[in-house]
What does this fold into?
Amino acid sequence: MKIKAVDKGNNNTSSIFKLPSKKSTSNFKILKDKKPDNSPIAPKTRFANPGENFKPKLTSREKGYKINPKFYNNQDLGSFRSNGESIQFICRDHRDEDGDRVRILVNGKEVIPNLLLLNRAKNINIKLEKGFNKIDVIALNQGLGGPNTAEFKVYDDNGNIISENIWNLATGVKASMLIIKD
It folds into this structure.
């Protein structure tokens, strides 16, 4: 079998590979003039603003969202007796984990300045003084979903439950309980 060389000067030869003319740009999309897309679903800018997805949630209160007026009143969580040296104060956000924060005071002294409430419970050991021990929980904010919501349980040294309840507080409002150590 002999292979013949192709004559480069002869343009009449047929080839399976045909190159387009250098002057023709009609086959190339990127070289065509791009027409603006006036479609209502096409984005008007190249990049989206990432804050736009969250803006409706952050401004929901401005658009008529009202918190129940009773959440603006301080809440009395009751008075209880204990002979123990300390209590376990366990609290958690019982609704949506939305950034609720509280401050905890015992007898007017700040014990926890800024506690973020999660769905997972937080355990706080509070040493009791002889006599009255007033525990105040002050809502620092209301998170994204309305009042500051939490569930709490209080246990004595022996693991016996002293109290359990929930609170729903507007910002600045407090829930208080009194533990009397005999």
In short: The helical segments are 55-58. Residues 57-62 have pLDDT under 50 and may be disordered. Residues 47 and 53 are 14 Å apart (CA to CA). The chain has two domains: 30-58, 75-181.
